Amino acid sequence: MEAFGFRSISRGTHTASFYCVVTCLLWCAFASRAAAQDPVPPARPAGIVVIGIDALSTEGLQMAATPNLDTLIRRGALSLRTRAVMPTVSAPNWASMLMGAGPEQHGITKNGWTRATATIEPAARDADGYFPSIFQLVRNQSPGAKTGMFYDWDKLADFFNPKYFDAHTYSEDYHESVRRVSGFIIGQKPLLTFLYIGHADDVGHESGHGTEKYWKAVSDLDAEVGRLLSDLKKAGMFDSLLFFVITDHGGVGNGHGGESMAEIEVPWIVSGPGTVRDRLLAKPNNSLNTASTIAWVLGLKQPDAWIGRPVTEAFESTPGGASYVARPLVSVRPGVYFESQRVTISSRDRDAAIRYTTDGSEPGIGSPVYRDPIVIDSPAVVKAVAVTGRGISSVS
User: Fold this and answer.
1) For residues 173 and 27, is the Cβ–Cβ distance under 8 A?
2) What pLDDT, in 10s, does the model give residues 344-375?
3) How far apart, in whole angstroms, are the C-alpha atoms of residue 360 and residue 364?
4) What does the H/E/C string look like for 160-183?
5) Considering the entire predicted model, what is its pTM?
6) Which helix (H) or strand (E) holds 139?
7) Most distant CA atoms of the chain, gap in Å
8) What is the C-alpha to C-alpha distance for residues 333 and 59, in angstroms, rounded to an integer?
9) CA distance linking residue 384 with residue 36, whole number of Å
C-alpha cells in the first residue's frame, strides 16, 4: 500500500482515504457501465412515419424490385433477421409492434380479436380498456402533437383507442391510403403517422408466397411508397422525417401462421435523421422493439407493461459494420426438369459481381465470377452471392 501513499488499511485516516478512493473508483465504474448501456437518443426528428407492409418476407424484400425501399435502406439500417411474435398471424403482430409487448401482455392473440371477445386480460389498460400503444404515449406525453393512422385492413381499428388519433382513416384500396397519408403528413405535420398496406398479404394468399405474382405485388407497393417519398421530398420534408418499415410475418405457400423460419423471420428498417447509414444490423432483434425504439427517439417514458427495448444499434456509428447487398436473382427455380436448363443470374446492384458454385458448396469472393448463362444438363446445386465494395449478400 505504500506505493499508493497508504501505510495502513486497518485504522486511521489512511483507512478512510483508501475507502474513499475505492468508493470513487467503483462509482466511476458503475457510471461508465450505465452510460454504455443507456446511449443518448438522437436529436428528435420533425416526425416519424411508420410504413407497415403486411406479409413482406425477407425473401420478398430481396427478390422483388424495390428501389424505394432500397433508398430507405441506404440512408438507414436494416435487419433481415428480426423475429415476429407467435402466432405468425396479423393481429398479434401488428398489436405487438405498436404496443411494445407480446400477446401475453396485450392479450391480442388472434385475427378477429375484439375487446368483447378477448380471453386474455391485458396486463395494463387505459380508461377505455385498451392496452397502452405508442399512439397513447405520444398523445399523453407530447401534448399538442398530432398522430394519424391510415389502413386498408379494417380489423386494425379494433386494437387501438381512436381517441389518440387526429386522423384514423380506413380505405378499401391501398393506393387511396397512400394518397390520404401524403396529404395528412404534408398538411398537418404530425409527430407520428402509421400507414398500413395489405397488398402483399392478399396476393400471397391468392397466388402463393415466393411466386412471381407475389414479387410483383411487393414491387407494386414499393412504387406507392415511392410516390409518398416523392411527395414528401417536393414538400421539403423528407430529410427531416424518420421512417420505419415494419411487417408482421412472412409466408409459406398460400398461408402463414405456422412455425417456420420463413414465417417468423422478417425484415425491419429504420431510416433517417440520427441513424447509421447503409448498415446491416448484426444483433438479434424482435419486431415488438419497434414501439420502444420510437418512444426512445421521441424521449417518451415507456410503460411498465411494455417488454420491448430500443434498437440503439441502428443509431450507433461503429466501425466495421456490414452493408446490405440484395441476393442475386436466379432464373430457374429448384425442381426436376427433363431437359437441360439455361440458368441466368442477375443482381439489382449494378456494381455487384456475382460469384457462384455448381457443386453445392458455399460461394464467396474466391468463387468463379458469373459472366454468361450456365447450362445445366445433369443434377446440380447452383448457389450464388452478390459482392460489392459494401459487402456480400446472402446466398441464392
Assistant:
1) no
2) 888 877 788 999 999 989 998 889 999 999 99
3) 12
4) CCHHHCCEEEECCCHHHHHHHHHH
5) 0.86
6) helix 134-141
7) 94
8) 14
9) 39
